[in-house]
Amino acid sequence: GYDHATGNFIWFVDGDDLLAPGAIEAVVSALKHQAPDCVHVGFREIDGQGQPLPGEHQPLDTGLTTGTAFFHEGVKTFHIATTAWTFIYRRALLEQSGLRFEPNLLHEDMLHTPLLLQEATRFTTLELQPYLYRQRTGSITQGINPKKAKARIDSLIRIYLDLQLVRRDNPDARFREALGWYA
To answer: How crowded is the C-beta side of 122, counted as CA atoms within 13 Å?
Structure first.
């Protein structure tokens, strides 16, 4: 999808999830006023039929900051979701970073998101829950079987090792510290 996108911002929306009514308009309005490189949004969970589940997930409000500062504070306070769909990225940031999701790596956003956040010099959060995260039986995160479990473990080990390499070679002490906590 990224290769075919034409807008100034990119939001990675999973195929089985939804956006709340008015979400695009609310996000576009906020983006125009703040001109960030990256925005973190909240979400609500819904069941397989689209009915709301209890609780809301509000992003950590850090005001206008850097992605590194947000990542550091979010990991330190256990108040961060690194799922790709909770972030909206300026297209130029994605192009500048050169980062791509790795095919066949489960939970690839656990690796991708911290690396992109490090690139964001203008980062903010929106006090909205425009994303509707569908909880359904049999999804990658819900289903359990030995083959899926092995693939998940293999992916998580690979992500952990890659994060340790990034941490070892990163010149930013604050980012290294956050990656240590995160990993």
So the answer is: 10
pTM more than 0.85: yes
Burial call 92-115: b when 16+ CB within 10 Å, e when fewer = ebbeeeebeeeeebbbbbbbbbbb
- 173: tokens are 């002490």
Q: How far apart are CA 15 and CA 108, in angstroms?
A: 16
The rounded distance, in Å, linking the Cα atoms of 172 and 138 is 40
Q: Which of 5, 23, 19, 162 is nearest to 89 (CA)?
A: 5
Structure tokens at 159: 């992500």
For 117-160, the pLDDT digits (tens) are 999 999 999 888 999 999 876 555 555 688 888 999 999 999 99
